[in-house]
Amino acid sequence: MENTIKLLGNVKNPKTGKTLGDEERWVNAEANENGQVIITYKRDGISPQEKRQIEDDIVDALKSQYDEDKILVKTVSSSETPSAQKPTAAHANLKVGHGVNGNKKRIPNVKKVIAVSSCKGGVGKSTVSVNLALSLKKLGNKVGILDADIYGPSLPLLLNKKGVKPEATEDKKIRPLEAYGLSFISFGLFIDEGDPVIWRGPMLGGVLNQFFFDTKWDELDYLIIDLPPGTGDTQLSLVQNTEVDGVVVVSTPQSVAIADTIKGLKMFQQVNTPVLGMVENMSYFSPDGKEEKYYIFGKDGVKNISTELEVPFLGHIPLEMVMREGGDSGKPYMADDTYKDNEGYASYMDIAEKVAKIGKEKGFFGKLFK
């Protein structure tokens, strides 16, 4: 590794202008059997922005000798260096390199991959993703959920796993966490809460590919992918590299939300990814103990547009105070049967049954899953 160490000699701390060698920050540089080079340095006193600059400089310094996708960068604090650590399972780490587009692949050990999408932020898509996953689990399925929102990951909060770090398996795969009977992984598990993510699009593709193909998923009937808003790099990386069996599109009934949501729906249609149907979230609000329904964002907007676009309508999900409270407290609405007499509970179970039924009837899931 002498040449590697030499190449790293000019990498500097942007705050002080000194090299990481002068500041005695280098911990380790090693190559593994997969041809990857793993660089570890101490992050004490370095801001997220400075950390990003250092890691970009490491990649630039080494890319003449290694493919960018083979360069992994790890950071530790002084208290975490090998001499100070107690023996524990190794934490999983993410690649800093770029993603590579290639032939579409199936995610290992996963039977059905369903993406949950909306072009509009703030429509409750992540809440729907989590509760749909739990509803599919109630139907007797083994379910995982992947948080593909790199800039705004929310699963650690929704599943009460804030601050928990994933471990690595013996073969250096990421071991997903478990919550409420779901396996899940999120970029939010790899960063400190409040840290900004300032990454170029291709780097996001590298992380997502690692989530898709380097995560040690157990045998799953369904993997739900919670997509970020829009039709950007994350969505393109998904459809270019991964076999997706179907997409569930979420929107509120509000016209401005529907207008943006249609763009995302048509993107998936253009790339030949089946749209399983549309869900109308926050359809109406009923105060506890009262029969009145208040259509805060309009009535039947998603149902009407799904008819116009000839896309299946999967159902309405009402606004309930306990849904919001469950998300904020890390105990999702469908985590148990507490609310089984509520309209929202019945809606989620109905939507889950339709997702499974539509997929089978239209053959989206292929002969293997009939």
Provide structural commentary.
- The protein has an eight-stranded mixed beta sheet, sandwiched between helices. Strands 1-2-3 form a three-stranded mixed beta sheet, with helices on one face.
- Mean pLDDT is 81; it is low at 82-88, 96-101, 196-202 and 366-370.
- The longest helix has 19 residues, at 343-361.
- A hairpin with a 5-residue loop joins strand 6 and strand 7 (174-175).
- It has helices at residues 2-7, 48-62, 125-138, 155-158, 201-213, 233-241, 255-270, 301-309, 321-329, 343-361, and strands at 26-31, 37-42, 71-76, 110-117, 143-147, 167-168, 174-175, 177-179, 182-186, 220-226, 246-251, 275-285, 313-319.
- Helix 3 crosses helix 10 (343-361) and helix 5 packs across helix 6 (233-241).
- It is α/β, with parallel strands linked by helices.
- The protein folds into two domains: 2-80, Macrophage Migration Inhibitory Factor; 110-369, Rossmann fold (3-Layer(aba) Sandwich).
Question: What is the tally of beta strands?
Answer: 13
Second rung of CATH, namely the architecture of the largest domain = 3-Layer(aba) Sandwich
Question: Proportion of β residues?
Answer: 15-25%
Q: Helix amount, in percent?
A: 25-40%
CATH superfamily of the largest domain: P-loop containing nucleotide triphosphate hydrolases
Main β-sheet, spatial strand arrangement: 8-9-5-10-4-11-12-13
Q: How is the biggest beta sheet arranged?
A: 8 strands, mixed
Overall geometry: elongated
Q: Could you list the spans in which at least 5 consecutive residues all have pLDDT below 50?
A: 82-88, 96-101, 196-202, 366-370
CATH class assignment of the largest domain: Alpha Beta
Order of helices and strands: HEEHEEHEHEEEEHEHEHEHEHH
First-last Cα distance = 51 Å
* Structural classification: alpha/beta
* Radius of gyration (Å): 22 Å
Average pLDDT, all residues: 81
- CATH level-3 fold name of the largest domain: Rossmann fold
Q: With helices defined by DSSP (H or I, 4 residues minimum), what is the helix count? A: 10
Tally of structural domains: 2
